[in-house]
């Protein structure tokens, strides 16, 4: 295997481990030593791949956002294939039990929304881009002629409902709150 290919694979393993840790533990919970251990590497090799922890976090934000968007798109696709409208499928997928429980593979904004505003400028800008993309995705699912601001309101409601449900616990009250929030948003935005 060529050295550059092995180096790229190792780099990708580190970013993958950091992306999982980022969604699971938040920005402060991403430690270089732990990420390197999760990637099956020693702490000493970190600086051969990244100039700083911030550089790792920036790549982890992009990776986590990309993975989360892919998972959400797959879940929406499965629901639209069963006859749901794009908007109902989006709400149903975002506020699903899978998303409630799978913090390591879900939406980055849903996992870190409250932390994003407290980051330094480079991470804040990357986080803003993720929020803007979520709002765009919601806007794409809304029917033509939707009132200005509906995409922002619905995106905020989705993220807030998910975060509150996770706070209440992934069983019992959290699940109940998630289902109630989903039903209310579908009734408000996606009812035919």
Explain what you see.
There is one protein chain. By secondary structure, the chain is mainly α. The protein has a single domain (54-190), classed as Tetracycline Repressor, domain 2 (Orthogonal Bundle), CATH 1.10.357. Helix content is 73%, strand content 0%. It is built from 9 helices and no strands. The protein has helices at 3-25, 32-38, 53-81, 86-94, 97-101, 108-116, 121-141, 150-168, 173-190. Helix 6 crosses helix 8 (150-168) and helix 8 runs antiparallel to helix 9 (173-190). The model has no long low-confidence stretch (mean pLDDT 93).
Brief descriptors of the model:
single chain; 192 residues; mainly alpha; Tetracycline Repressor, domain 2; 9 helices; 73% helix; 0% strand; elongated
Major beta sheet summary: none
CATH class annotation: Mainly Alpha
- What sequence of helices (H) and strands (E) makes up the elements? HHHHHHHHH
The total of helices stands at 9
**Tally of DSSP β-strands:** 0
CATH superfamily (homologous) name: Tetracycline Repressor, domain 2
Strand content: under 5%
Any idea of the CATH topology? Tetracycline Repressor, domain 2
Which class of secondary structure composition applies to the elements? Answer: mainly alpha
Low-confidence stretches: none
Rg: 18 Å
- Globular, elongated, flat, extended or rod-shaped: what is the shape? elongated
């Amino acid at each position: 295997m060529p050295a550059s290919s092995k180096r790229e694979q190792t780099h990708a393993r580190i970013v993958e481990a950091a992306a999982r840790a980022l969604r699971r533990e938040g920005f402060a919970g991403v430690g270089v030593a732990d990420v390197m251990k999760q990637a099956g590497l020693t702490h000493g090799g970190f600086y051969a791949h990244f100039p700083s922890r911030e550089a790792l976090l920036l790549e982890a934000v992009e990776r986590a956002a990309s993975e989360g968007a892919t998972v959400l798109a797959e879940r929406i696709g499965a629901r639209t294939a069963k006859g749901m409208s794009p908007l109902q499928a989006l709400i149903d997928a975002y506020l699903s039990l899978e998303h409630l429980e799978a913090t390591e593979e879900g939406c980055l904004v849903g996992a870190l929304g409250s932390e994003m505003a407290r980051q330094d400028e480079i991470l804040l800008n990357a986080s803003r881009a993720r929020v803007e993309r979520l709002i765009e995705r919601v806007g794409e699912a809304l029917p033509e002629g939707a009132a200005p601001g509906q995409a922002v309101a619905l995106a905020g409601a989705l993220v807030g409902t998910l975060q509150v449900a996770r706070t209440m616990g992934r069983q019992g009250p959290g699940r109940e709150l998630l289902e109630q929030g989903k039903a209310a948003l579908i009734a408000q935005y996606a009812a035919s």
